[in-house]
Amino acid sequence: MNQPAIPIIDPDTFVDLYVTSEAREQARHLHSPADSHNRFPASCFFTLMRIEDFARQISFPIPASRSFHYDFMLLTHGSIQRTYGLESYTIGPGMFSAYRAGDIVSTDSCSADATGFYGLFDAAYVLTTLKNPHALAELSFFQPDASPLILLDTATESDWLAQLGRIEQALKSQRTDSQLYISSLFYAFLLDIQQHYGHRKQIRQLSSSALLTAHFRQLLTRHILSKRTVNEYADLLAVTPNHLNKCVKETTGKPASVLIAEMLLLEAKVLLGQPGLSISEIAYRLSFDDLSYFARFFKKHTGLNPTNYRQQA
């Protein structure tokens, strides 16, 4: 079986690969239950860290990968260079950044003077706490078409830092009754971000087409290497191919087949940006039967063959 085209990194793997050996045990001890043998929880996981406490212990750059955890950061000083998909951003003071689980991301650099907060959580943490299967779908800043950056005014930055400070203190308290308090503070923080981001969506306003499309996008990030047809995704979603196409086009303006091709192209473009990989290796990782088939697919959708794209990128 082919290895994933873009590696999937969980928190434990991240620590093993990118945290200095001296800091690995501390990283897990601070954010794992006492009985977890210094491993991160497999599910229902949330942690909040100071960037200045952990960034010094990380080896940058962190190459392109995926995670099925969400993350966010709020910088108060310094800068972090991050690439979401194919777009690179410089995150600076007074900027909030959000990463959507399943997307492709790389962290290219972190300045030595960077300070602020970094949070990491999985969907189960939010969904279990709120008993609402659509909770994350209500947050527009975690949707596929959302900008990953929000520039804050001084008052909002101060308010969000105060909220994160309260969450940090609650996490450190180790009280047996603190989990509900922490989750309440955290969700209130997410709703505050949503209100600031704008275009707030209540669950009653989310159409069935939009919800089905969101689930389809999530499946794409997990199955793009093995499933390439609308029929296969319709089977996973227990709907007909026609219904899936209708809902996706109603929501995005594009048929489901175009989103499948776009996801595969994103994978290919990210890999073509890594000079250590040959084009034949990229085709293999993307589960194409042969190099010529991959080249035809790529040129059909971009107008360039993979070699020319790599030269121009």
Please give a structural write-up:
The strands form two sheets. The chain has a five-stranded antiparallel beta sheet with strand order 1-8-3-6-9. The protein folds into two domains: 11-197, Regulatory protein AraC (Jelly Rolls, Sandwich), CATH 2.60.120.280; 207-312, Arc Repressor Mutant, subunit A. The protein has 313 residues and is an alpha+beta fold. The protein has helices at 11-18, 21-31, 51-54, 123-130, 154-173, 178-197, 208-223, 230-237, 241-252, 256-272, 279-285, 291-302, 306-312; strands spanning 46-50, 62-66, 70-77, 80-84, 87-91, 95-99, 104-110, 115-121, 149-151. Residues 32-36 and 199-204 have low confidence and may be disordered. It is globular. 48% of the residues lie in helices and 16% in strands. The relative contact order is 0.10. Helix 5 runs antiparallel to helix 6 (178-197), helix 7 (208-223) packs across helix 9 (241-252) and helix 8 (230-237) packs across helix 9 (241-252). The two termini are 29 Å apart.
The class by helix and strand makeup works out as alpha+beta
Fill in the CATH topology of the largest domain. Jelly Rolls
Mean pLDDT: 87
Percentage of residues assigned to helices:
40-55%
| Unreliable spans | 32-36, 199-204
Assigned CATH architecture of the largest domain: Sandwich
Helix/strand order, N-terminal first? HHEHEEEEEEEHEHHHHHHHHH
| Order of strands, widest sheet | 1-8-3-6-9
Could you tell me how far the N terminus lies from the C terminus, measured between alpha carbons in angstroms? 29 Å
Question: Mind telling me the CATH class of the largest domain?
Answer: Mainly Beta
Number of helices: 13
